[in-house]
Amino acid sequence: MPRSLPQKIADAARLLLLSAEDRAYLRLIRESGAFDRAYYLEANPKLHRLFRLFPERHYLREGEAMGLCPNPTFSPYAYLAQNDDLAAKGIRPFRHWIERGQAEGRKTLADLRPAPVPALPRLDAPVPPERAAPVAVALHLYYPDLWPEFHERLAAQSFDFDLFVTLTGPAALADGPAEAIRAAWPAAGVWTLPNRGRDILPFAHLAQSGLLRPYAAVCKLHGKRSPHRRDGDAWRTALADGVLGPPGPTAARLRTFLDRADAGLWMADGQLYRGNDWWGMNRKIAKGVLSRIGIDPAASLLRFPAGSVYWVKPAILDRLCALELTTADFEPEVGLVDGTMAHALERSVGLLVADAGLEMIETRNLDTPLAGGHSGTDRR
Questions:
Q1: How many CB atoms lie within 10 A of CB 254?
Q2: Domains along the chain?
């Protein structure tokens, strides 16, 4: 969401006018040599040009609270998560690590890399393929308390669909969230998966299990909060409104999307991000995994659906399945906001669409239906 001029002025003032405590922290960062300027700028390519001149200041005023990493081996979120005696004290994690943590041998991101690889469970189809609806909705929830919000949105729709829900995270280990979902949607498939790969691996696992094969299109929803963004909740709502909004317009747009032979992915307005700067430090990761199916990320300009919420057709799911993703492809979850396999694959979706010879379109492109088109998505 674009920042207004007063907001930009306030941002600049926060950057330039530091308190005595922040000035001391800034000196500590510079003297430690632990802040990797080149890494920080590469990992955050869309920083305002003023912030790019003073990346250390951006980190101490904004970046640390957002969970950004000051170097490749330190994550503020991971540091607090692995040192819970610090989390409740309001301690600045990078400052603590510079002053004491490294001498104490405290755990950082580098220490978290080796970890047991959890197995993915077998997913059995809740609905026989011959009884499948025309389309499906695949919802991933890390935050089960968002279920009522999505339940209301799903229940409002007028077209027929099958529902698949994947749960991860601490709350998902209890039976309550799954029971609440099954009570509201008895025919839904609901599974608790290991907390790997954010929303990407659960969706890939659904596809690789064959559960999405019967459908003409699948809506991928993600219960994201994006705590590193000021507008995290508003962004989630905007993403979902674009692809699963008011029932009448949504059903009409879905019919048009299915009828458009050139359309492979449909996302909310304003979510088609363009430009290779958006790769950040994810291109190398993407190159490794996409080489499995002969796609080179450097061969074309990056275009992708930000936020990972969209409708997608089978040709793209086929290419996702061909990657043969497993939990071993994804890092242990430490709350990073960039630079993981999940972030690399989020950006790679546009390349899968292009490889299929199809287009990514936004909601506004679907408000002029094709003449005579009808795809039979109304509720039975």
A1: 26
A2: 5-112 (no CATH), 129-366 (3.90.550)
